Amino acid sequence: MMLREGLANRILLWAITIAGLLVIYAPPLYLLAISFNPALQPGLPNISELSLKWYASLPQETALIGALEQSLIIATATAVLATLMSLLAALAYFELRSRRTAWLLTVILPMFVPGVIQGLALSAVFARTGIKASMLTVIAGHLLWAMPFAFIVILTSFAAVRRSYLVAAADLGADWWHRFFDIILPLIRPGLISAFIFSFLLSLNEFTRAFYLAGRQNTLPVVLFGKMNSGASPVIYAMSGAIFLISVLCVALIALRFLWQGRAGNSARSSG
Amino acid sequence: MTKHVGMFASAQHSNVQRRDFLKLMGAGGAALSVGSLGWASRLAAQDAATVAFWATATLDIGDKWKAFATQNGIAPEFTDNGNDIGPVIARLAAGNANDLFDVGGFQGGAEKELARQGVIIPWDLTKIPNYEGVWQWAKDIPYLKQDGKQYSIPTVVNADSIIYRPDKLGKVDSYGVIFDPKLKGRVAMEDAWINSAIFTAMYLKESENKPIVEPGNLTESELGLVMEFLIKHKKDGQFRTFWNGWEQGVQLVADQEVDAMTGWEPIVYEGRKRGLQVEYAAPVEGYEAWGNNTVLLKGAGDRGVTDAAHKFVNGLLGGFYGCELGQARGYLVPTDNNLTYAKAHPDEYKPDEVEKLAEHVKAKFAGKVYWQNTRPDNFQLYEEWWQKLRNA
């Protein structure tokens, strides 16, 4: 009877898991399938029709490539700055005692401002202060968007930092920099990496702020939206498909690396 | 023991840290400002022979802009504006669009509001000699002029009606088919008031003799009449769906879910490619005409680049651009200069194809048309009514 209940639970869990994965992965897989359709209009292709036609024409799409380059530069800069600034903000939070709630709310407040309002308002402020729209203004807008998330992620990782470690290190004569580099940084490293990736992706996919703050070179989401809105060439699906495939490849490589490290660790333990 | 509290609880140390943090923030902000202003000075010193063209992707000819620049002595820098008129107006009125761009290009109808807000300025037609060659009916688009001044130049035009299955319905020549109770659940309209409200208004005006003056710019009472009519039919189960986006439009026809629907002509070609008998109707009530127009942004005047902007728009009407846009995307620039250019360059463009496209669109405009309007006077009411329809 217990065996049956266990089996039923496992089936239920697997069913929910598969349903969840389908909901998550069906849309990008659908777009991926469309990208292999050689027809001018988007639609699911027959197996016999599959083609790399639109992928082959990607290098000629200078507007899309330019937008992708712009997005990658902005996302990288945003991720670096958001991670660094969030780290500083988290250190401040760690140090503050009575006013730390006020500090937390101050840092995460921009998260609650709708993107369209933040983008348009920032654009108006920049215009009135004589700051011309450019890659830097988009980075500024994206920082406001990504930093609260990065801050929360890093703050979570600070749970691993116990004051007793720092006190002990101080007792042994470690100065501030040593305590920071030798204790805090290694403990919060996973949080920093997560904050960087999170900020990078938030910036890469952001549309509304970029629309209002960009200069003459749009970011990739803005260009893709415009092309879809005006009867796009299917090459935009190839661009989306290429990004999806590269992302999957990166995740797979990371997974393989962890797998390999795990095996290497196991074999070292067994031989030791 | 003092060391124990030295790092994280010392107020002095803490203040130093905070000051450092603020200094860093200040330095970052300063760098941002200096960087942006540096970019601004470069922008201000832009080459007089370039024009920043901020338009819907419909008007983009990609790498062919280089050839355009060689021919016309003006190098356009194209930036996609997303083709969504609401954010475009917001960015012009309150944002940075006028600091960045010289010429705008979008679906017609918003010119009145943009001129009223002073974010666009009139064209000087004496500096656009190719405007002479624009077909008269395109010159008659109601949004081009405000207070007698030419604010907008027609750049791409076409007209939409009904996609239908002749094998199921025979010949269709009226929007009445969309509201025919015999076709309950077998028809569809687009989920956008910009097209569906005007189609319905055209039907009610022309075939039901309802008191509607301008289907593209409905008064409050006219809009109520049109929308209550649509809501009643929706509640009766008349519509299979209100389709959204190209893919769904094609699927409705390809999967034979509907026998008739209002929509874009390319869906007809896609249906035929999939082996279906599909036609595009020439309704007695007329076509819904639409145009992408170019406007001169106030910023061009402030920067003193209006002559270059005029030269650019003159180039758009010169023939090469029309040939390229027609060949690459099937869009039509309303001028005979396209055919003249194609005949002079038969190795690049097929004159018979250029002529065929022109005649096809001209034939639509030979009859009755009503112009699509992206920004009717009661625009907010349109939005409210459309929401009511969605919820009905």
Distance between the termini of chain B: 73 Å
How would you sum up the major sheet of chain B?
11 strands, mixed
Low-confidence stretches of chain A at least 5 residues in length (pLDDT < 50)?
none
Greatest interface and its residue counts?
A: A-B, 55 and 54 residues
General form of chain A: globular
Tally of contiguous helical segments of chain B:
18
Number of strand elements of chain B: 13
Estimate the mean pLDDT confidence of chain A.
89
Computed Rg of chain B: 26 Å
Structural classification of chain B: alpha/beta
Proportion of residues in helical segments of chain A: over 70%
Query: Proportion of β residues of chain A?
Result: under 5%
Number of strand segments of chain A: 0
Rounded mean pLDDT score of chain B? 86
Q: Describe the main β-sheet of chain A briefly.
A: none
Topology order of chain A in helix (H) and strand (E) letters: HHHHHHHHHHH
Q: Can you describe this structure?
A:
Chain A has eleven helices and no strands. Helices cover 77% and strands 0% of the residues of chain A. Chain A is an all-alpha fold and 272 residues long. The mean pLDDT of chain A is 89. With 392 residues, chain B is α/β, with parallel strands linked by helices. Chain B is built from 18 helices and 13 strands. In chain B, helix 3 links the parallel strand 1 and strand 2. In chain B, helix 11 packs across helix 12. At the A-B interface, helix 3, helix 5, helix 6, helix 7 and helix 9 of A face helix 1, helix 2, strand 2, helix 4 and helix 11 of B.
Please name the defining characteristics of this protein:
heterodimer, A: 272 residues, mainly alpha, 11 helices, globular, B: 392 residues, alpha/beta, 11-stranded mixed β-sheet, two-stranded antiparallel ribbon, 18 helices, 13 strands, 47% helix
Write the layout of secondary structure elements.
The complex is a heterodimer of chains A (272) and B (392).
Chain A: H1 2-35, H2 53-56, H3 62-95, H4 100-108, H5 115-128, H6 135-157, H7 163-171, H8 176-204, H9 208-213, H10 220-229, H11 235-271
Helix pairs in contact in A: 1-11, 3-4, 3-6, 3-8, 3-10, 6-8, 7-8
Chain B: H1 2-6, H2 11-44, E1 50-55, H3 65-72, E2 75-80, H4 85-93, H5 97-100, E3 103-107, H6 111-116, E4 120-121, H7 136-139, E5 145-146, E6 149-150, E7 152-164, H8 166-169, E8 187-190, H9 193-206, H10 220-235, E9 239-243, H11 246-254, E10 260-263, H12 266-273, E11 279-280, E12 287-297, H13 298-303, H14 306-316, H15 320-329, H16 337-344, H17 351-366, E13 369-371, H18 379-391
Parallel strand pairs in B: 1-2, 1-3, 8-9, 8-10, 12-13
Antiparallel strand pairs in B: 3-12, 4-12, 5-6, 7-10, 7-11, 7-12
